[in-house]
Amino acid sequence: MQEYPPIPTVGDEAAPEFAGHLWLLEAVEGSLLRFQLRTSGAIRFGGQQHVYHDDDAIPRQCRRAVRHVRERLNRAALRRAVDDASSLTFVGWATHRERIDYDWGRLPPFLGIDVFDADADAFRPPDDAEAIFDRLGLDPSNAVERERHSRDFDPDSYRIPASAWYDGSAAGVLICDKRDGRALLKNSEIPTPPENPIESENADSLAAAVATDRRFERVATRLRERGQAPTVDALRDRLLEDVYREEHGRLFGGERAIDESALRTAVARRAQRFLGG
Hints:
With 277 residues, this protein is α+β, with helices and mostly antiparallel strands. It has helices at 63-72, 75-81, 126-135, 203-210, 213-225, 232-246, 248-251, 260-274, and strands at residues 21-27, 30-37, 43-46, 51-52, 88-95, 110-117, 122-123, 143-149, 172-176, 182-186.
């Protein structure tokens, strides 16, 4: 699986000199996540450079995105499109909270940004990547502008647009050209510290704060839509994936530590009560 190069910030020495037509993609808060369909049909996941050799290695805030890709990826369409599906490495954002409280019901857990083609030894152009993610059942990252000529783009005077995923400005813009040039223009007006940290004295009080009936209802609905029963284990696992995604910056910022085993037990008890047990 192809490693993904670091994305420089506009103004850094490593930032490229853009040429030709640019695509401007909304940058969302989250972690870069790669995946590759293996010959066996299993999906291999990794971060920007490291491969996750088992599910326990997947960062907690990315687990919802991993499940989303596993459930949504159209494997048959991918195999029809290329002779060797494993020749493609897909890259995107595993969306999760750091500072911004997105509309989590609308923001997809995974947003695709790049596709590396090993046969061509190059990333596919931004328009091809967008179409590929669409065909495979995954959402591409929101394109703020398409085919804007580089001579008409001045990052120093560019105004960060509104986000497609909450009522506020985007976290930044990912600038892409068709020669594999990438750079991130960050929104400097978004506050750096995480806001409103979730305070709790123990696992039970933390579970009471995050394992709400509303979240259980949302998880139960997703399970039923996929023809699965909302069992205690299924509710617990998926609700925690949602919590780690939606509350990551509030749960794990600063010096706070969480006993995840105790939290799983406390959430399971609340799931049992939700089911009427």
